[in-house]
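Support request from a user on the community tier.

User writes: "When I paste my structure tokens into the form, the page sometimes reloads and wipes my input. The last time it worked, I copied everything first. Here is what I submitted, just in case something in the input itself triggers the reload:"
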């Protein structure tokens, strides 16, 4: 072991420039893994903490207010068997409020009793919370509401038919609405009943929070008893604090595994560089290996020494990645934390650091162990030869060692993916992609060799330099090309998607939405809108339903293993009924119904839902509509073209008495230019609608589209950053390759100077060499991005594709100039050296 450590130190001093290249290949990937996993883990901790504060109980039961008379006796009967359970009841309702300044907005009203909250305390901006603040029509509001309505503590606020007085504000960081869309307003349950908002068809929720104590078995027994008495199809939901934490954490677990795989993919690109540089280093150390064997060292000992050296380099490269991650978190963490509406602290976690070191070690060994097998072919008699042949890999050793390394990488992907299916798919995709890209890079470099027939000396010699031994040209082209491909594909898809959204908004989508309109309110709300906008809204019926059975057979959603497919079908759908097809809909299977109403229920499914559900035309689909089951026949399958459509419903029904009598609300849509001509019209309309129907939400489509754009731009920024890191990895490999072939380049440059080459000629040779590398990377990355973005836009998003040449040219041109600049700067000192000293040194 001591001998191995001494050899490691000796080799590090002798080949430190090559080792820097090795470390860079690892550091970028492991740093990305550590950073991304730490960020997701920090976010999970913050969300779980927020979730606990929001629930503030062991168990929460939520009942639809319209079915309270039926369900509450069942709830009370269960709780009589748990006399030790503490309880607080609340009513939650989204509604509109109007300030004395005539400003209006939507809020979430929570009417509570004197026992609220069961756990913790409500922190106010000033003073201490007590229930007396809510008695006599007092309310406590989120601080953001004061700014939105231009009001203050002590001022009145109209809710429903009553006027309340604002008596305090929540501390923003402690209010549960930090994760919600509407500001929270707290009032007493007694006052809520006087507002006139709790009508029989009001979309309110009756929430009961229960505290049992620190006994997990008792909590589980209570939740089990409640679920048996209040099944999901009754409209009730029962959730424990632990289940809520798991529900919040589950999507983040999947996100963490996905970004972990992205980090491994980047590390794998570095691994290709590691394999190449290891082969070059061993080739340069053949004589040293022969000396060791002359002194009695066995092939196994030499192999073990160099394997230990690569393992230690893997750990050292992971440590460098740790340092890069620490710098990125310190620099970007505070800015990223400010983007969230709840407190979150970004810092590196030991779990992520440990995984980063594990990934770095496995990748370093897996990609270097096959080239290291070549040490067994080094014979001691090589010292007697004047010329050393290139390193050859013995097949009988390289094949089993290579299979072992492949198995280690496969296990690494399964570990990081968290599931066999995902890990296996990503590993196969990554392996095939790397092989194809490496082959394409190799072909491009070989084609550059045709430049030897070019009469111009500078161009001929510059292209020939691409095939210099140890030049790593194919690896550099592949890595830079993949980074450009990734970043440019994301950018082009995002531009096409936003273009489609903007075009659809301009051509088809309404610019005003009226949400949660009750059947009894359509005439009243329609008249108010027509008075302010000179046009009457179109009302679309909305019915909430869940799919429970196909052809009479109950669907076991838990048995659906694919998370995406399960999420697509195991949810509450918003369906509608209408006589005709929308402008962007096409029937691809079956036939559309006649325009006359029907006594039997006919359904049309969108293709995405139909594929995930496995239903066909003629199948009988059972829907649960707020506890009542109805069965309809699938008569058609529709394809929706997003750009031309105004409505996006997975399930559409034929008009008839079956659904017209079901509980429903209406969505009002308005397309008008009054809002553009009069910016104050929206504010006046919102206040007027809130006064006559406080439960109705008035929303601008532009605000929704703004949210969509923000999400897309945030996702695009994150993925483009990852692509930029891959490009950086390729640039780092370029710098390493210059260092790796430094002595060869110095000797060639010295010979050319001796033969009369001028400094301008040498600069031209360098620029042509790196320009050719850059062009090859642009061909792979830029060309691949055009093809990938076209396929995703046309066949996944089903939209029109545009190349957006200005973005493509910026990405491709920027990459070209970056490679050219880095290559030129890295070679500058070599070009400036005097030839005499280099030739005398024998380099």
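"...and here is what came back when it finally went through:"
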């Amino acid at each position: 072991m001591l001998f191995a450590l001494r050899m490691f130190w000796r080799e590090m001093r002798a080949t430190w420039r090559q080792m820097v290249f090795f470390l860079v290949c690892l550091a970028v990937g492991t740093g990305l893994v550590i950073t991304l996993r730490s960020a997701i883990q920090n976010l999970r901790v913050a969300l779980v903490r927020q979730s606990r504060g929001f629930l503030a109980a062991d168990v929460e039961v939520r009942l639809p207010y319209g079915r309270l008379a039926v369900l509450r006796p069942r709830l009370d009967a269960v709780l009589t068997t748990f006399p030790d359970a503490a309880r607080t009841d609340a009513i939650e309702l989204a509604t509109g409020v109007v300030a004395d300044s005539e400003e209006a907005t939507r809020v979430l009203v929570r009417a509570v009793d004197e026992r609220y909250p069961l756990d913790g305390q409500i922190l106010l901006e000033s003073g201490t919370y007590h229930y007396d603040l809510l008695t006599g029509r007092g309310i406590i509001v989120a601080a953001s509401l004061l700014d939105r309505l231009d009001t203050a503590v002590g001022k009145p606020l109209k809710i429903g038919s009553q006027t309340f007085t604002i008596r305090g504000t929540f501390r923003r960081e402690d209010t549960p609405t930090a994760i919600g869309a509407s500001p929270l307003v707290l009032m007493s349950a007694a006052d809520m009943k006087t507002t006139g908002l709790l009508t029989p068809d009001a979309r309110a929720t009756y929430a009961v929070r229960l505290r049992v104590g620190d006994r997990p078995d008792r909590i589980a027994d209570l939740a089990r008893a409640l679920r048996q008495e209040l099944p999901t199809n009754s409209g009730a939901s029962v959730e424990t604090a632990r289940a809520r934490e798991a529900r919040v954490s589950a999507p983040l677990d999947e996100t963490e595994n996905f970004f972990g795989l992205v980090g491994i993919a980047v590390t794998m690109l570095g691994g290709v560089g590691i394999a190449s540089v290891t082969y070059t280093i061993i080739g340069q150390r053949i004589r040293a290996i022969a000396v060791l064997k002359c002194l009695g060292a066995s092939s196994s000992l030499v192999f073990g020494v160099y394997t230990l050296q690569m393992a230690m380099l893997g750990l050292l490269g992971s440590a460098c990645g740790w340092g890069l991650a620490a710098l990125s978190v310190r620099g970007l963490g505070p800015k990223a934390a400010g983007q969230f509406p709840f407190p979150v602290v970004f810092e590196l976690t030991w779990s992520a650091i440990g995984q980063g070191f594990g990934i770095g070690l496995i990748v370093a060994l897996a990609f270097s162990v096959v080239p290291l097998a070549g040490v067994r072919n080094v014979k001691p008699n090589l010292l007697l030869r004047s010329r050393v042949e290139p390193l050859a890999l013995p097949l009988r050793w390289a094949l089993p060692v290579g299979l072992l390394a492949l198995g280690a990488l496969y296990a690494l992907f399964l570990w990081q993916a968290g599931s066999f299916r995902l890990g296996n798919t990503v590993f196969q995709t990554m392996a095939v992609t790397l092989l194809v890209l490496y082959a394409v890079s190799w072909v491009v470099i070989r084609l550059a060799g045709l430049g030897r027939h070019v009469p111009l000396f500078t161009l001929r010699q510059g292209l020939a330099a691409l095939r210099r031994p140890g030049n790593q040209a194919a690896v550099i082209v592949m890595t830079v090309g993949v980074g450009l491909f990734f970043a440019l594909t994301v950018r082009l898809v995002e531009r096409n998607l936003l273009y489609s959204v903007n075009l659809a908004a301009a051509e088809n989508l309404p610019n005003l939405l009226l949400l949660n309109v009750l059947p009894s309110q359509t005439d009243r709300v329609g008249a108010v809108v027509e008075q302010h906008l000179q046009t009457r809204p179109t009302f679309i019926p909305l019915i909430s339903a869940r799919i429970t059975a196909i052809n009479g057979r109950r669907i076991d959603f838990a048995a659906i293993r694919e998370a995406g497919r399960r999420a697509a079908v195991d949810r509450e759908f918003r369906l509608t009924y209408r006589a005709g097809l929308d402008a962007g809909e096409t029937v691809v299977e079956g036939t559309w119904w006649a325009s006359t109403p029907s006594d039997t229920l006919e359904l049309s499914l969108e293709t995405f839902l139909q594929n995930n559900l496995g239903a066909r035309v003629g199948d009988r689909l059972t829907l649960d509509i707020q506890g009542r089951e109805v069965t309809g026949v699938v008569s058609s399958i529709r394809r929706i073209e997003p750009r031309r459509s105004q409505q996006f419903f997975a399930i559409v029904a034929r008009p008839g008495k079956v659904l017209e009598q079901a509980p429903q609300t209406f969505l009002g849509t308005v397309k008008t230019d009054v809002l553009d001509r009069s910016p104050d019209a929206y504010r006046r309309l919102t206040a007027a609608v809130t006064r006559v129907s406080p439960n109705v939400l008035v929303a601008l489509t532009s605000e929704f589209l703004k949210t969509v754009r923000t999400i897309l731009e945030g996702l695009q920024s994150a993925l483009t950053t990852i692509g930029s890191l891959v490009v950086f990895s390729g640039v780092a490999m370029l710098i390493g390759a210059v260092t790796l072939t430094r002595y060869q380049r110095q000797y060639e440059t010295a010979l050319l100077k001796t033969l009369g080459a001028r400094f301008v000629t040498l600069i031209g040779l360098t620029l042509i060499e790196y320009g050719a590398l850059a062009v090859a990377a642009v061909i792979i990355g830029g060309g691949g991005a055009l093809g990938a973005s076209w396929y995703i836009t046309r066949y996944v998003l089903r939209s029109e594709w545009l190349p957006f040449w200005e973005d493509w040219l910026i990405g491709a041109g920027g990459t070209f100039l970056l490679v050219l600049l880095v290559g030129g700067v890295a070679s500058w000192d070599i070009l400036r050296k005097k030839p005499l000293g280099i030739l005398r040194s024998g380099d």
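Agent notes: The reload is a front-end session timeout and is unrelated to the input. Residues 172-180 have pLDDT under 50 and may be disordered. The CA atoms of residues 22 and 454 lie 35 Å apart. Escalated to web team.
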